[in-house]
Design a protein that fits this description.
Order of helices and strands: EHEEHEHHEHEHEE
Oligomer: single chain
Largest sheet: 8 strands, mixed
Number of domains: 1
Helix content: 25-40%
CATH architecture: 3-Layer(aba) Sandwich
Shape: globular
CATH class: Alpha Beta
Structural class: alpha/beta
């Protein structure tokens, strides 16, 4: 039996805490000095919005330049994107401009929900909240600050973007072409255009 999954991308520069956010949310786990993601990782979760459970496929990609060639497949059929910067490294906020451009180039969903996330707020910050909020506002995106280490506002981030996705007049969980179909029996993605990622279908 197949079930529908909402596809959400987690993007940003290397070492901004993308994987830590994902692990904290899905596995309630945090690791100091976590190694950078190689290529693509994906985890599944279920999020309840207004009494309805939604299966969510969360796609995490390496922020290193050499993995940008993965972009076309990675961005395809996405419902939402979380752009992460490190509040202790100003350059990661500045470089969100390139990630927004990549999103516009490779994602063909004009109604994609976007969130800007400032990470590592438990550490000494160099980026003020208002700076991150302005970037989000300029792109019509949601904004939140988090700490995966201290488990601050991580669930809020994922819950808010899923709520925005499913609340959109353009979203239809039954018929939307921007829906990834997961086959629970086979443990595979029936969408022919999606890149392989075994961990995405382990849930």
């Amino acid at each position: 039996m197949a079930s529908k999954a909402i596809k959400i991308l987690i993007i940003g520069e290397s070492q901004v805490g993308k994987s830590s956010l994902l692990c904290r949310f899905v596995d309630n786990y945090y690791e100091d000095n976590k190694k950078s993601t190689v290529a693509i990782d994906c985890k599944c979760a279920e999020i309840c919005v207004d009494g309805t459970e939604y299966k969510v496929a969360l796609w995490d990609t390496a922020g290193a330049e050499q993995y940008r060639t993965l972009s076309p497949n990675f961005y395809r059929n996405a419902h939402g994107a979380i752009l992460v910067y490190d509040s202790t490294r100003r350059e990661t906020l500045v470089k969100l401009k390139q990630w927004f451009e990549d999103l516009e180039t490779f994602c063909h969903n004009p109604n994609i929900a976007i969130m800007v996330v400032g990470s590592k707020i438990d550490e000494k910050r160099v980026v003020d909240s208002e700076e991150g909020r302005k970037v989000a506002r300029d792109h019509g995106a949601l904004f939140i600050e988090t700490s995966a280490k201290c488990d601050l506002f991580v669930k809020d981030a994922f819950n808010q973007i899923v709520k925005k996705i499913v609340s959109s007049e353009h979203f239809d969980n039954r018929t939307s072409p921007n829906v990834v179909t997961l086959d629970k029996k086979k443990g595979s993605d029936s969408s022919p255009s999606a890149p392989a990622s075994p961990s995405c279908f382990s849930c």
